[in-house]
């Protein structure tokens, strides 16, 4: 997994870009991936100096984004029927037709966490 570039490297990157150095050459010179170089330049063009700041809000685990009533329905269906995530998702589509539903993987994670909570 990548890690945030320090502000000095980001500033060097923009300085080189402003002086006409190509993105490919900048990425080679600073040992930064091309897509990272391009993203930082685009963000700088859109936001100015604020675009150079790191955005640590995007880092780390975010926890479950499943709405509480849908999460409870998943747990209840699992305990009553011993269904897997795919079958639970089919059932949720019928129960909550106009709501945004979690992915199969999110349901699996929820059920795994719930199982660990019960055994701990």
Please summarize what this structure is.
The protein has 120 residues and is mainly α. Helices cover 62% and strands 0% of the residues. It folds into two domains: 7-58, Arc Repressor Mutant, subunit A, CATH 1.10.10; 68-119.
Structure, explained:
The structure is a single chain. The chain has 120 residues and is mainly α. It has 2 domains: 52 residues, Arc Repressor Mutant, subunit A; 52 residues. Helices cover 62% and strands 0% of the residues. It is built from 6 helices and no strands. Helix 2 crosses helix 3, helix 4 packs across helix 5 and helix 5 packs across helix 6. The longest helix is centred in the C-terminal third of the chain and has 16 residues. The chain is elongated, with a radius of gyration of 22 Å. The relative contact order is 0.10.
Task: Provide tags for this entry.
6 helices, mainly alpha, Arc Repressor Mutant, subunit A, 120 residues, single chain
How are the SSEs placed, and which strands pair?
Layout: H1 7-18, H2 23-30, H3 34-47, H4 68-81, H5 85-95, H6 104-119
Helix pairs in contact: 1-2, 1-3, 2-3, 4-5, 4-6, 5-6
The CATH architecture designation of the largest domain is Orthogonal Bundle
The Cα radius of gyration reads: 22 Å
Q: Whole-number average pLDDT?
A: 88
CATH topology of the largest domain: Arc Repressor Mutant, subunit A
* Uncertain ranges: none
Helix and strand pattern: HHHHHH
Percent strand equals under 5%
Ends apart, CA distance between termini: 30 Å
Basic shape = elongated
| Record field, number of beta strands | 0
